[in-house]
Amino acid sequence: MRFKACNTIAVIGMHTAACSSAVDSSSGHTMSTTTKTNTTMATATAMTRGQRASVQQQGCAKYATQRACGSSSAQRNYTCAAAAKAQTPRTESTYRLTPSFTPRCLLLALLLCFTHALGLIQLAQAASSGVTSTEAYFNGSAYLRLLTPMPIWDHSAISFRSCRGGEILAQQYNKNSFVITVLSDFLQVSLAGPAVIGPNNRLDVKLPYHLLDNHWHTLQFKYEYGNLYLYIDRTSLVFANSTYNSQFLTNQDIGNEAAILILGNSFSGCLQDGPGLLFINGSVQNVVYGPCPLSTGPCGDHDTLMLGQDNYCSNNPCMSHGQCIPLNDGYECRCTPRYTGKNCQIDNGSPCARNPCANSGNCTEDVRGDYQCKCTTNYSGRNCETEINVHPACQPNPCLNNGACIVAPGSTKVECECAKGYAGARCENDVDDCASQPCLNNGRCLDLVNGFTCDCRDTGFTGPNCQTNIDECEGSPCKHGGRCYDRYGWFICQCPDGWAGETCEEPTNCKTQQCLNGGTCVNKTIGFYCQCAPGYSGELCQQSPPCPQCPIDSECIGGKCICKPGTTGPIGHCLPIPPTPPTPPPTTTTTTTTKTSTTTAAPP
User: Fold this and answer.
1) Residue 139 burial (CB < 10 Å; 0-12/13-18/19+)?
2) 472-507, superfamily in CATH?
3) What is the pLDDT of residues 14-73, one digit of tens each?
């Protein structure tokens, strides 16, 4: 939830100006007030808030004067006139006080006004502590109620990360509901209500996607070319149109402007807002804002949270030139031999140039700036500093890859002490440093000797382990004034009217869109608009004429209450249509024909 304290402070300023206008007139019973309004602030403040501030300004002056001076018409003349004119910016006016307006009255009015302003200051302080993050954690009992419903006929998107799942979104109006639920084996989108055709007045669409894997996934709804598309991550499918799941488009209640939208009810995990579903208003119940606190890695039996913990190593402060050790108040870098400094930022040249390998050992440097010594037969150790008294069993040099051959006293059994990065009875195996899956977010792991590297190309992430999200919006990928929303691994463009496509690169017109319910499409210079038939409204004429409250046995179609499918009769007394009696089978008549053969004798 975001609060904009500047708007509230602007209201306080207007209250103070209205109240201080009374002080300037106490000596001469004449007051000259100059009201100057900062037009920049007025432009930035929403119109509805500005109107509310104006009403509150009038109320403050009127309330204070009535309390201090009485409520007679003569005593209110000054305040009402002053409050009415103080609304107009950049004006200068002169007001005359009635003789009954005493200094005592002014003092009490001023006190009441500043008391009221103090309350607004406290409101502003509460507002300034509001959350600005677009991510939120829901613990299964938390929820967020937004004041603006999800636009069914436009572009909306929400991202989630979870191992448990639950109900992501529920929008309800007039006993009709639209619900999105993510479960272990499928994603379910449901429509329910008295007018819904289906078992128990429900329509459930189940999509076989496995999305509870503790990775971020994004759901988008877009209405284009007469189809309502559902995007699951970057895969799109036709979810509804005039002949398929059409009830999601024809149900008028779920898209009503007064619909109630609840996010995260009975959901365990993290949500991230997007186009049409911004976490900027509404009421909150136990929601924790900020970066998702779920620990990374595979899902387990229970969620592991990292609330309040700062991982100072998450941004790779050691620049891949050393090991980062997180501390309570910071971090420590243990640099490879080539580098020094707090962040291993100082390059001291190749460590092999300092000849660290003794006794004719051969030095090789890796990509991180570390080195390895390949020792001659009679020496071992990191720097080949330890002389080996070769046991006869070690003479054939059975240990591979610079492994050290060891024979215990009184034994003839050979054991190999392997160099870093190798394992096996004879150090014959290169250790698979990718076995632990160190590369995150679909990064590709490349095994090295005693190490690994992550290929993060085409993942949307960067860093040694592909752990840092790249903000694709910094490159302004959305064209024609589209608004960019950064996602984990990619981005979403919310296009302005007249444009569509992943980056708002495709113009929309009457060839690509269609008006519904008999509406006529008219092209504009950019985009199009629909001339709707009488009674219909909406961008695409998708909203039917309003109906009276239809009885439970009927539904609203075209502004009229019609009996539900399968029923007939007067409204309020719709009865099931009786089944048509089966047509009797045709009667089959069998006719037997007997042929008589007559033999005539030949004449003599």
Assistant:
1) middle
2) Laminin (2.10.25.10)
3) 333 444 443 344 333 333 333 333 333 333 333 333 333 333 334 433 433 343 344 333
Check residue 163 and give its pLDDT: 95
Q: pLDDT by residue (tens digit) across 217-252? A: 999 999 887 789 999 998 999 999 888 998 998 887
The tens digit of pLDDT for each residue in 324-374 reads 888 767 889 999 999 999 999 999 999 999 999 999 999 999 888 999 999
Asked if residues 544 and 560 have their Cβ atoms less than 8 Å apart, the reply is: no
**Predicted confidence band of residue 586 (pLDDT cuts 50, 70, 90):** low
DSSP 384: S
**Under a CB-based contact definition with an 8 Å cutoff, are residues 367 and 464 in contact?**
no
CATH T-level assignment (fold) for domain 135-289:
Jelly Rolls (2.60.120)
The answer to whether 457 and 427 are in contact (CB under 8 A) is no
135-289 and 509-567 in the same fold: no
> What is the C-alpha to C-alpha distance for residues 386 and 193, in angstroms, rounded to an integer?
82
Domain ranges in the chain are 5-128, 135-289, 472-507, 509-567
Which three-class secondary structure state does DSSP give residue 342?
A: coil
d(CA 409, CA 393): 12
Cβ–Cβ < 8 Å for 250, 196: no
* In 193-321, beta strands by DSSP E: 202-207, 217-224, 227-232, 235-240, 260-263, 268-272, 283-285, 288-289
> Is the Cβ–Cβ distance between 164 and 212 less than 8 Å?
yes
Question: Can you name the residues that pair with 156 across neighbouring β-strands?
Answer: 221
Which string of b and e fits 518-530 if b means at least 16 CB within 10 Å?
Answer: ebebeeeeebbbb
Q: Which of 5, 314, 304, 257 is nearest to 129 (CA)?
A: 5
Would you identify the CATH topology of the domain 509-567?
Answer: Laminin (2.10.25)
171 vs 306, which has greater pLDDT? 171
Q: Indicate the SS3 state at residue 368.
A: coil
Q: What's the CA gap between 101 and 81, in Å, rounded? A: 14
* Residue 380 or 124, more confident: 380
pLDDT tens track for 175-205: 899 999 999 999 999 999 987 888 989 999 9
The pLDDT score that the predictor gives to residue 570 is 92
Q: Which residues contact residue 334 at a Cβ distance below 8 angstroms, ignoring those fewer than 6 apart?
A: 318, 322, 323, 325
